[in-house]
Specification:
about 350 residues; alpha+beta; 15 helices; 8 strands
C-alpha cells in the first residue's frame, strides 16, 4: 500500500518537468531561481535564470556587483524589490558566512528578503532538510485536498496550510516532495480546470468528484488598486543617431529605484523641475497609457520635450542603445516604445523586453 507521499513522489518522478534549477543543488542557484519564480511564469524565468547565473555565477560574484548591474540583469522581470533584496541577502551571506548560504534555517530566515517560503525551498531542495513550503500552487492543492473552506490569507487558513505542509514534508526526499506539490499545482491541480483524471491523489482528495474541486480555494478579498494620474516627460537632446533621452533614478515607492522618465502628479513642468531638467515642452500630451502595478493603477499622460539640459546633478542621458545597460522601469520602457515617442525603435533591447 502506498501512501499519499509516495504516490506524489512517484508521479513527480514520472511527470515532473525538467527545469534548469532542478538540475542544481547549489543553494545560491536555488535561491536565485526561487526569487525569480515569485510572481513570474516559468517560461519567462528560464532565459533570465541562465543569463543571471552566467553573469553572476556565485554568491561572491553577485555580492561584488553594484546595484545598477544587478537591476540591469533583472530588467524586464518586474518586481525589482526582489532583485535588490536578493542582492542584499547575498552580500550578507558573503560578509557573514564566507559566501556559503547557511544550512541553519534560523540563519537563513534572518537574511534580507528570505521569508519562510524561500528559506524552506532552499533548505529542502539544496540541503535535503525537512522544511515545509507553502506558495500559491501548494495553497490551492491543499485547499482542495483537505477541503479547506476558509479564505486564503486569513490567519487561520495560513496556519492550517503550513501545518499540513509541515506534516507532509517529513520523510525521505523532502526537496522533491515540495517540488512535487508545486508541480501538481502548476500542471494538474490548476486554478480553473483541475485535471482530476490525471491526478495521483484522487484517493486522498476530499474534493475529488465534487464541485469543490473548482470552487476551492476561497480567494482572499483584495482591495482594488488605487488610481493615480501622472505626467511623464520624454525629454530628449540631440537628433537622429545622437538623440538621447534623459532619465532619473525613479521614485523608490513606485519604481523600485530604477532609472525612469521624469514623472509627477503635478503636471509635466513639475516633472521636469523635480528631475533637474530644462527643456522645450510641448503643451499637449502625445499619448496616454494605463499602467497597472500591484496596488496602483497609473493613468499616465506622456509629454514630449526637446533640447533638454540638466540644471543640477542627477539626470543622465541615454541613447536607445545604452538603455540596455541600465535597469529601467517597465513603465519607462513602455513609454519609450510608444509609436508617438518612437525612441527605442530599432534598438536591440529584445532580451530585456520579455515581460513585466
Ligand atoms: Fe486537485 Fe483534482 Fe487532484 Fe483533488 S483530485 S488534488 S482537486 S487535481
Amino acid at each position: 500500500m502506498t501512501n499519499l507521499r509516495e504516490r506524489l513522489l512517484s508521479w513527480y518522478d514520472r511527470a515532473g518537468r525538467d527545469l534548469p534549477w532542478r538540475r542544481s543543488r547549489d543553494p545560491y542557484a536555488i535561491w536565485v531561481s526561487e526569487v525569480m519564480l515569485q510572481q513570474t511564469r516559468v517560461d519567462t524565468v528560464i532565459p533570465y535564470y541562465h543569463r543571471f547565473l552566467g553573469r553572476f555565477p556565485s554568491a561572491a560574484a553577485l555580492a561584488d556587483a553594484d546595484e545598477d548591474e544587478v537591476l540591469a540583469a533583472w530588467s524586464g522581470l518586474g518586481y525589482y524589490r526582489r532583485a535588490r533584496l536578493l542582492h542584499r541577502g547575498v552580500r550578507e551571506v558573503v560578509a557573514r558566512y564566507g559566501g556559503l548560504v547557511p544550512e541553519d534555517p534560523k540563519a537563513r530566515r534572518a537574511l534580507p528578503g528570505v521569508g519562510r517560503y524561500t528559506a524552506g525551498a532552499i533548505g529542502s531542495i539544496a540541503f535535503d532538510r525537512e522544511e515545509p513550503i507553502v506558495d500559491g500552487n501548494v495553497s490551492r492543492v491543499f485547499a482542495r485536498l483537505f477541503r479547506i473552506d476558509s479564505p486564503l490569507g486569513a490567519t487561520a487558513t495560513t496556519q492550517r496550510l503550513w501545518d499540513e505542509a509541515e506534516k507532509l514534508v517529513r520523510g525521505p526526499r523532502p526537496g522533491d516532495l515540495n517540488q512535487a506539490l508545486m508541480e501538481l499545482g502548476a500542471m494538474v491541480c490548476t486554478p480553473k480546470g483541475p485535471d482530476c483524471a490525471s491526478c495521483p491523489l484522487t484517493s486522498d482528495c476530499r474534493s475529488f468528484g465534487t464541485s469543490d474541486a473548482t470552487r476551492l480555494p476561497i480567494k482572499a478579498t483584495k482591495k482594488p488598486p488605487r488610481r493615480l494620474s501622472l505626467c511623464a516627460v520624454v525629454a530628449t537632446s540631440g537628433r537622429g543617431r545622437d538623440k538621447e533621452v534623459w532619465l532619473i533614478k525613479g521614485r523608490a515607492a513606485l519604481f523600485g529605484g530604477l532609472w525612469g522618465l521624469p514623472i509627477s502628479d503635478a503636471g509635466p513642468k513639475r516633472a521636469l523641475d523635480e528631475a533637474g531638467l530644462r527643456a522645450r515642452l510641448r503643451p499637449e500630451p502625445s499619448d496616454r497609457i494605463t499602467h497597472v502595478l500591484t496596488h496602483r493603477r497609473l493613468e499616465v499622460d506622456v509629454y514630449l520635450a526637446t533640447g533638454a539640459k540638466p540644471i543640477h546633478d542627477g539626470p543622465s542621458p541615454y541613447s536607445a542603445k545604452s538603455l540596455a545597460t541600465v535597469g529601467t522601469s517597465t513603465l519607462t520602457r513602455r513609454v519609450l516604445s510608444l509609436p508617438a515617442v518612437r525612441f527605442t525603435q530599432g534598438a536591440d533591447l529584445a532580451p530585456q523586453w520579455a515581460s513585466g
